[in-house]
Amino acid sequence: MKLSLLSLPAAALALGLTAAPASAQVVTNASQVQSGTYAVEPGHTQVGFSVLHFGFTNYQGVFSNVSGTLHLDAKKPAESTLSVTIPVSSVQTTSTKLDEELKSDQWFDAAKFPDATFVSTSVHTNGHNDATVTGNLTLHGVTKPETLKVHFIGAGVNALDKKYTTGFEATATIKRSDFGVKMYVPYVSDEVRLHIAGAFEKQD
């Protein structure tokens, strides 16, 4: 049987493959998000990083399997809190050899310091969908205050698992030497740019 492009929607209906468009239920104004306690949805949360490699390329990698809790107060955002844990051994680049090197005691020393954590201390809104979140970042056994620039993406019921989900993106720049990770500085830049995609599922 041959299907034309025009007949594909009808065929999909017959097979029960359709789902409600995700955009139909998504709100894009942070003030409309449901307040409550959220857990990190690890499958769609990534902590990306980028360093300048020997002045040639902005080399990137990512951490995954993030866990944590967001207590979100949509009416009083300043009272919201965030706590996340990032397993250092989840680090991944395009080089398996480099992945193992980054886990070693020359870099992150994942065996001794298995987790990086961020715990917020303050939230300041900048307009409807943006905020500055300051907190304590612990990495390589060292804790330093760092600041995230956070942008709200959207919230609504996930069309696949039917869970109320909210999502953000965040950026920050840190100095790895502040945390005792000094290998190859300055040939591999001391400054590390972070780009975070955060998905959270409502728990109550």
From TrEMBL:
**Tree of life domain:** Bacteria
What Pfam families does its record include? YceI
Q: Which residues form the Lipid/polyisoprenoid-binding YceI-like domain?
A: 37-201
The keyword Cytoplasm is assigned to this record: no
The signal sequence is: 1-24
Alphabetized UniProt keyword annotations:
Signal
* SUPFAM superfamilies (alphabetical): YceI-like
Q: Which InterPro entries match?
A: Lipid/polyisoprenoid-bd_YceI, TTHA0802/YceI-like_sf
Name of the protein this chain belongs to = YceI family protein
Organism per entry? Acetobacter thailandicus
